[in-house]
Design a protein that fits this description.
binds NADP nicotinamide-adenine-dinucleotide phosphate, 8-stranded parallel β-barrel, two-stranded antiparallel sheet, 324 residues, alpha/beta, 17% strand
Length: 324
């Protein structure tokens, strides 16, 4: 993986090719993650040279992910990390997820996030998702004001179409766009990725490991309990799940020839795709992030790239990402 720091859009912010996705640290993707695990995972990421930390107002019902970052940062300088936050999604009682992009709501969430993070600014602030109930221009205007006030250095948008990106950027110039992207789920190659590439907007990829599926650690008979959000996604169900695991098996010899493990070549492949600026990988403990950090020194060769392309072709079309 090319480890050179990359500039986020037109901003002064630079990130490495791999970032720590701090969503699993909130303990909402599955249970059993303690505050100590979360804090140790952030610390292990920083120690491994992964300093781009991606979080959000809604990562945890009470900001548990932001709290873990703040705790881990107590022994680091603020300038040693790039903090990326998101606003525009929150939880209501009963774990009901609500998208709310009204300017006053966004501003309130950002102020609360900054308090939890113990900082006066984030380096990158995304609109987490467009709110279909209001014109995107209103949300974009709020992020432009927050940047003008110094509460963020760069602005991004996430989970968004090209049409809405265009309207957002007309009000608030964009530095980054965060979308789901991995070897098997590559919808953005058709529209968002070329649009961003043509305009110098950085694309930050989430779900590079397909929520853990591409790590080569899942048994074929694995059953996800109701407390593990993966049970809702087609990619972990029935024949889809088995065919995805066939694909992972096909990656194994490719990784072994390079002296690597499957998640390392998966992350290296993702980071080297044209237009991808940084890849956010989640982890639930320090060992996982240490293993994933191995991808930083993983170099794919043309033989590996050709073999990966053959495995992707053999896998065929994957199911939609949407939970059911
Ligand atoms: N903008 C958005 O709307 C949005 C949406 C989703 C995610 N994101 C961001 O993108 C980040 C990455 O996405 P993600 O965390 O959902 O998915 P991911 O990176 O594809 O998968 C992460 C999960 O895989 C498992 N894992 C990771 N490394 C492993 C290893 N070496 N060995 C075995 N298992 C391993 C862990 O789950 P288990 O230990 O539970 O198996 C971990 O929680 C998020 O953390 C978040 O920052 C953004």
């Amino acid at each position: 993986m090319n480890q050179t720091a990359r500039r986020l859009g037109n901003s002064a912010v630079h990130v490495g090719p791999l970032g720590l996705g701090c969503w699993p640290l909130a303990g909402m993707t599955r249970g059993g993650i303690t505050a100590a695990d979360a804090q140790a995972t952030v610390a292990a990421a920083i120690a491994a040279g992964i300093t781009h930390l991606d979080t959000a107002y809604c990562y945890g019902e009470a900001g548990e992910s932001e709290a873990a970052i703040a705790a881990a940062l107590s022994t680091h300088r603020r300038a040693d990390v790039v903090l990326a936050g998101k606003c525009g999604i929150h939880w209501e009682p009963g774990r009901k997820q609500v998208v709310d992009g009204r300017p006053e709501r966004l501003r309130r969430e950002v102020d609360e996030s900054l308090r939890r993070l113990g900082t006066d600014h984030v380096d990158l602030l995304y609109l987490h998702a467009p709110d279909p109930r209001i014109p995107i221009e209103e949300s974009a205007g709020a992020l432009a004001s927050l940047r003008a006030e110094g509460k963020t250095l760069a602005v991004g948008a996430s989970n968004i179409s090209v049409d809405l990106l265009r309207r957002f950027a007309a009000v608030c110039p964009l530095d980054a766009c965060q979308m789901h992207y991995n070897i098997l789920q590559r919808e953005i190659e058709a529209d968002v990725l070329p649009w961003c590439r043509a305009r110098g907007v950085s694309v930050v990829a989430y779900w590079p490991l397909m929520k853990g599926l591409l790590t080569d650690t899942m048994a074929r008979d694995r059953v996800f309990p109701a407390t593990d959000s993966r049970h809702k996604y087609p990619m972990f169900q029935g024949d889809e799940f088995q065919r995805n695991l066939d694909f992972v098996e096909a990656l194994r010899p490719i990784a072994h020839r390079l002296g690597r493990r499957v998640p390392e070549i998966v992350l290296a492949w993702t980071a080297e795709q044209d237009g991808i600026t940084s890849v956010l990988v989640g982890a639930t403990n320090p060992d996982q992030i240490r293993e994933n950090a191995g991808s930083l020194t993983c170099q794919l060769d043309d033989e590996a790239r050709r073999a990966i392309a053959r495995a992707v072709a053999a896998r065929g079309t994957v199911a939609s990402r949407k939970p059911v």
